[in-house]
Write a structure and sequence with these properties.
Pfam family, one: ABC_tran
Protein name: ABC transporter ATP-binding protein
Radius of gyration: 18 Å
Order of helices and strands: EEEHEEHEHHHEHEEE
Number of domains: 1
GO molecular function, one term: ATP binding
CATH architecture: 3-Layer(aba) Sandwich
Number of helices: 6
Keywords: ATP-binding, Nucleotide-binding, Transport
Low-confidence stretches: none
Structural class: alpha/beta
InterPro entries: AAA+_ATPase, ABC_transporter-like_ATP-bd, ABC_transporter-like_CS, ABC_transpr_LolD-like, MacB-like_ATP-bd, P-loop_NTPase
Largest sheet: 6 strands, mixed
Length: 226
């Protein structure tokens, strides 16, 4: 489903060029649960942002279902992110003044459906992550684990093909982090492709494949027997 071909990302900082990714290539199949790991500054988040359509490569191609997303115009890229991609962030990225239901409804604003349908879809997504009884709660009234579950529900609400999770347990204690990993594993069993960036090597045992990045290059690409 995803093919990364000789992709490089170079940033210019003053008079200096910083190579975040250096001619990397790999393929990601439908239904895989992949962990991208590496030290800070290795390029792992850059790779996720490129495949997620949040940035474009300096060189190379990123093919999703045969289409080069790096060539998409702004409107087509927005459609790609809204319909095929769901994002889960370390810092949750929730609106504190809105309820869980309202936060999950946000990606549906441009879906061209009625308010009633948006609420029904958001409620269903919250029920999927075990928060059907928290739809009227605001983020500050919830625990860190519950807030991350709201973030996962928001990623699911448009029924995406791919879920990107950027350090999804980074702001959680170990027990709560394990519950979020269990949720992601269950979603993967339901058919979602999950690409997770993490520095926590404990979580690599829970995924089907580990891609290790260092200095902008893929160092290892291993399949787990789970």
């Amino acid at each position: 489903m995803i093919e990364i071909k000789n992709v490089s990302k170079i940033y210019t900082m003053g008079n200096e060029q910083v190579i975040a990714l250096d001619s990397i290539s790999t393929k990601i199949k439908d239904g895989e649960f992949i962990a991208i790991v590496g030290p800070s500054g290795s390029g792992k988040s850059t790779l996720m942002h490129l495949v997620g359509g949040l940035d474009t490569p300096t060189k190379g191609k990123i093919l999703v279902d045969g289409n080069d997303i790096s060539e998409l115009k702004d409107s087509a890229m927005s459609k790609y992110r809204n319909e095929k991609i769901g994002f889960v962030f370390q810092s949750f990225n929730l609106e504190n003044t809105q309820t869980a239901l309202e936060n999950v409804m946000m990606p549906l604003i441009f879906a061209g459906i009625s308010d009633k349908e948006r609420k029904a879809k958001a409620k269903k997504a919250l029920e999927m992550v075990g928060l059907g009884d928290k739809i009227k709660h605001k983020p500050m009234e919830m625990s860190g684990g519950q807030r991350q579950r709201v973030s996962v529900a928001r990623a699911l609400v448009n029924s995406p093909q791919i879920i990107f999770a950027d350090e999804p347990t980074g702001n959680l204690d170990s027990k709560t982090g394990e519950s979020i990993m269990e949720l992601l594993k269950n979603l993967n069993k339901e058919g979602y492709t999950i690409i997770m960036v993490t520095h926590n090597t404990e979580h690599t045992k829970d995924v089907s494949r580990v891609i290790k990045i260092r200095d902008g290059k893929i160092q290892e690409d291993d399949t787990n027997e789970i």
